[in-house]
């Protein structure tokens, strides 16, 4: 596989892909159905986020949906129906291949070095809620609705890493309630519980997400990549292990030009101009 690609070389067909400077925007774009996922879009999202480790011109990713909604989860007719057919034909291997693919999408989002900012309006349910959960930062609107709907369709709340990740974001008890009941979490509640970093007016949501992305992209992006890596890897570490991992990460960052730039700018009473190296 190539060790370096350009963001412009990525040309997914099942969602919109836009790049402006160092910020890439992924827009789920089936607004007439509240942007559901299909087998194709699951796979393309997975592959796109995997390839981002080689797209060195992208520093931050914004993930959003078109038409006033984020994502309504798996398409009822294009995914749920075929899965029921597989169940009736006892095709366990096919069912497991699908659930592993959906989990691979979460792994790809968590594994790409770029911080991912989810801009969430309207429906954010099922697999859509998982995409939001897997992102690094979440901006929402008061009118949005977040729901982990799996038990409503006879499935476990344990889907795509939800039982591991959601409690770390909002706490064990709150996560348990959402995953057992499948109820909707309104925007203000989602912010109060810590799922959203903050609420934004719907008409300003995408601009605010891109503004935050631009601010991060203007910072020490190599250090941001290292921060994301440590945040993810340290979930499975003890405190002593984590302190050692962070000592190594910080020593690596101290070898960057950005570290020196920050010092010299401080000494000159100037604002540092980070370049990500």
Helix content: 40-55%
| CATH architectural designation of the largest domain | Alpha-Beta Complex
List how many beta strands DSSP finds. Answer: 9
How many helices? The count is 11
Fraction of residues in β-strands: 5-15%
Organism: uncultured Gemmatimonadota bacterium
EC number: 4.2.1.17
Keywords: Lyase
Protein name: Enoyl-CoA hydratase
Can you describe what's shown?
By secondary structure, this protein is α/β, with parallel strands linked by helices. It has two domains: about 210 residues, 2-enoyl-CoA Hydratase, Chain A, domain 1 (Alpha-Beta Complex), CATH 3.90.226; about 45 residues. It is built from eleven helices and nine strands. It has a six-stranded mixed β-sheet, with helices on both faces. The chain has a three-stranded mixed β-sheet with strand order 5-7-8. Strand 1 and strand 2 form a beta hairpin. The longest helix has 20 residues. The protein is globular. The two termini are about 25 Å apart. The model has no long low-confidence stretch (mean pLDDT about 95). Belongs to the enoyl-CoA hydratase/isomerase family. Its EC number is 4.2.1.17. InterPro entries: ClpP/crotonase-like_dom_sf (IPR029045), Enoyl-CoA_hyd/isom_CS (IPR018376), Enoyl-CoA_hydra/iso (IPR001753), Enoyl-CoA_hydra_C (IPR014748). This is Enoyl-CoA hydratase. GO terms for molecular function: enoyl-CoA hydratase activity.
């Amino acid at each position: 596989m190539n060790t370096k690609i350009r963001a412009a070389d990525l040309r997914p067909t099942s969602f919109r892909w836009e790049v402006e400077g160092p910020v890439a925007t992924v827009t789920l774009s089936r607004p007439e159905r509240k942007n559901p996922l299909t087998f194709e879009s699951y796979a393309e999202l997975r592959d796109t986020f995997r390839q981002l480790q080689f797209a060195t011109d992208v520093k931050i990713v914004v993930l959003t949906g078109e038409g006033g909604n984020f994502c309504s989860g798996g398409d009822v007719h294009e995914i749920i129906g075929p899965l029921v057919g597989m169940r009736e034909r006892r095709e366990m291997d096919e069912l497991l291949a699908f659930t592993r693919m959906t989990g691979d999408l979460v792994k790809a989002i968590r594994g790409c070095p770029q911080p991912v900012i989810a801009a969430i309006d309207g429906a954010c349910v099922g697999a859509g809620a998982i995409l939001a959960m897997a992102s690094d930062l979440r901006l929402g609107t008061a009118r949005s609705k977040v729901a982990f709907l799996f038990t409503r369709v006879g499935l476990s709340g344990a889907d795509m890493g939800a039982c591991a990740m959601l409690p770390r974001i909002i706490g064990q008890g709150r996560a348990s309630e959402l995953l057992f009941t499948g109820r909707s979490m309104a925007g203000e509640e989602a912010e109060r519980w810590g799922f959203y970093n903050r609420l934004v007016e719907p008409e300003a949501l995408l601009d605010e997400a891109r503004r935050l992305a631009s601010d991060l992209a203007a910072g020490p992006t190599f250090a941001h990549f290292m921060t994301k890596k440590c945040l993810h890897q340290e979930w499975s570490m003890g405190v002593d292990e984590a302190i050692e991992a962070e000592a190594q990460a910080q020593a690596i960052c101290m070898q960057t030009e950005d570290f020196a730039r920050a010092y010299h700018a401080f000494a000159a009473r100037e604002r540092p101009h980070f370049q990500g190296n």
